[in-house]
Specification:
The protein is of the alpha/beta class. The chain has 8 helices and 14 strands. About 35% of the residues lie in helices and about 15% in strands. The protein has a 6-stranded mixed beta sheet, sandwiched between helices. Strands 5-14 form a two-stranded parallel ribbon. Strands 7-10 form a two-stranded parallel ribbon. A hairpin with an 8-residue loop joins strand 1 (about 1-5) and strand 2.
Length: about 280
């Protein structure tokens, strides 16, 4: 849990990182100016093996942090949501705006993630309405870069991990799905644009300037490691229950771009930095 205040800091704004389970009530004695709520379970295996835990963090965790925000009368609360809340779009739109919504099958266990993210967003909206908590919601696309654990099952994580380990890149699909990736520093700058400059409730944050297929991403990662002579191979498992089955359109980031947010890191450069980080750490 990340809170901002100016306690014992003559130079002004600081941040305090509190190591705590957000599913439990949070007691913090000092004043708080801003809260950024990024806690969530995002590993593909968690969606199928611990769906109740996924729901608990997204719903109970959000509730607890919103209660803290209400008690402390914060200046701003930022919730990090996901592109998955849009569900399967019911139109042929290639880009979706903040007021476009599709369908999520509530019976699928895999839906524990997008459905609980949706509920968390509704909690944020209700706390803003009923208690006047200054609220912003950022819906993120695929974010990549250093400092990740490489264990959540994200496609770019798996590709980087295979490449760093000197293993061929294995596709668990036909590789035709298109994706848009945002480097972590660009995503973080977008979050602060929303938190500090935004005047609306919801903003998409996604770099769609370099859309790439899953196979194209795999081939790009391979090209960054020529000395390892890696190949891209296809091995589609029979059980794909942990994977997102529906097609989600790309996020239209026009609103955050109106706040002057711009991406600065090209996909190739970002992947090079990411590969270098995980090669040396």
């Amino acid at each position: 849990c990340l809170v901002f205040n100016s306690i014992d800091n003559p130079e002004g704004l600081i941040y305090i990182l509190i190591d705590k389970d957000v599913t439990e009530p949070i007691d913090y004695p000092n004043e708080i100016h801003y809260i950024i709520h990024a806690a969530s379970m995002v590993a593909r295996t968690d969606f199928m093996e611990n769906p109740i835990g996924v729901i608990s963090v997204n719903v109970s965790g959000t509730w607890n942090l919103l209660e803290l925000a209400r008690e402390k009368a914060v200046e701003g609360f930022l919730y990090l949501s996901s592109r998955e809340i849009y569900g399967e779009t019911l139109s042929e739109k290639r880009f979706i705006k903040e007021d476009d919504y599709g369908a999520v099958n509530p019976i699928l266990v895999r839906s524990c993630y997008p459905e609980s993210k949706r509920m968390a967003e509704n909690l944020c909206s209700c706390y803003s309405h009923q208690y006047s908590v200054p609220m912003r919601i950022a819906r993120l696309g695929h974010v990549y870069g250093p400092e990740y654990s490489l264990s959540s099952g994200r496609v770019w994580e798996e590709f980087i991990q295979m490449a760093v380990s000197g293993k061929d890149i294995v596709l668990n699909c036909d590789g035709k799905m298109e994706l848009a990736f945002t480097y972590v520093s660009d995503a973080v700058s977008g979050l602060f644009f929303v938190l500090l400059n935004g005047d609306e409730l919801v903003y998409n944050i996604s770099d769609t300037s370099e859309i790439v297929t899953v196979r194209g991403l795999a081939e790009l990662v391979v090209s960054l490691c020529p000395e390892k002579e890696l190949k891209v191979v296809v091995d589609i498992p029979e059980d794909r229950s942990g994977y997102l089955q529906s097609k989600v359109a790309f996020l239209d980031s026009g609103k955050v771009e109106e706040l002057e947010w711009r991406k600065t890191v090209l996909l190739t450069d970002g992947l090079k930095r990411t590969r270098t980080y995980f090669t040396t750490n």
